[in-house]
Design goal:
The structure is a single chain. With 264 residues, this protein is α+β, with helices and mostly antiparallel strands. 28% of the residues lie in helices and 22% in strands. The strands form three sheets. A four-stranded antiparallel beta sheet has the order 1-6-7-5. Strands 2-3-4-8 form a four-stranded antiparallel beta sheet, covered by helices on one side. The chain has a two-stranded antiparallel sheet with strand order 9-10. It binds a DNA duplex (14 and 14 nucleotides) through helix 6.
Length: 264
DNA sequence: CGAGATGTTCGGCT
DNA sequence: AAGCCGAACATCTC
């Protein structure tokens, strides 16, 4: 599930533990989720630290603790955050649990494509501060999008939207939504898009990100009823614009759906 | 039971 | 040499 807006939603779930101290940590440290993290230090240092705040950027989350401790979380394909009672007993897929007096903050991920990072220091870690410019940032301009498309001239535009360094936070369903709104065929090569169409892509990318953050991220509610999103999942889905049948193909290595009539 | 799943990374090929 | 593609990662659901 987790794309931009879902990640922001899950980040806030752990707000239930804000200003509370971690008393105990349970984790499956041998799992690949913890690759690159110093698991021993994490387990040793976290007890006694207080959750002070958090932030989401694109598909990453950063949790800030007292004692200069930081936790990074990426949800991968099937990761979730939740809050359980303090006597919670972790099961197979609950790879990290931060126990507090009144809560247990749980990170679970059956497929384990997610990731946990640990950092000790006064300032946020480099892997966080080096994240690319957000699609919703004022500095994210049509010119930047156009320059990126020019550099990736031979790449299908669908694949381009999934490049996280260019469109951070955009995932498979958001990419299809953006292309449907922009009326661009997902297989169109980036190099063939006119400047005007690149600007449309820019505009719709921002719009889809902004509206998702205003709906999905708030309460996990669905995007607006007239979005392509609702047609995308069902075999009988139809184009919300012209009612025509949709097509499905693998583009950029991912299942892609689009309306062949209005997306060119 | 086989296929596919809302993500990332790596290795190999052009 | 940069850039593109497919496979791999691990598990569950339809």
């Amino acid at each position: 599930m987790p794309e931009l807006a879902e990640v922001e939603y899950y980040r806030k779930v752990w707000d239930g533990g804000l200003r509370r101290t971690i008393t105990r940590v349970a984790l499956h440290g041998e799992k690949r989720l913890f690759r690159g993290a110093d698991v021993a230090r994490l387990a040793e240092q976290m007890p006694g630290a207080k959750l002070l705040g958090s932030e989401a950027r694109a598909k990453q989350m950063l949790f800030r603790f007292s004692l200069d401790l930081w936790l990074g979380v990426h949800l991968g394909m099937t990761g979730k955050l939740r809050v359980e009672p303090p006597d919670f007993v972790p099961s197979r897929h609950d790879h990290l649990v931060l126990f507090q007096k009144r809560h247990a903050l749980v990170f679970s991920d059956p497929r384990m494509f997610g990731r946990v990072l640990f950092h000790e220091g006064r300032a946020a870690p480099a892997w966080w501060t080096a994240l690319p410019l957000a699609v919703t940032a004022p500095e994210f301009t049509p010119d930047l999008v156009q320059a990126f498309l020019a550099r990736r001239a031979r790449l299908a535009v669908k694949a381009a939207l999934l490049v996280q360094s260019a469109f951070p936070g955009v995932g498979n369903w958001m990419a299809d939504e953006i292309l449907w709104r922009a009326k661009i065929a997902p297989a169109a090569l980036c190099g063939t898009l006119t400047k005007a169409r690149a600007a449309t892509l820019w505009r719709e990318a921002r719009e889809v990100c902004a509206v998702s953050l205003a709906t999905v991220a708030v309460d996990f509610s669905d995007p607006p009823d007239d979005w392509f999103y609702h047609q995308r999942w069902t075999a009988t889905g139809r184009c919300p614009r012209d009612g025509g049948p949709l097509r499905t193909a693998t583009i950029g290595g991912r299942t892609t759906r689009w309306c062949p009539r209005c997306q060119r």
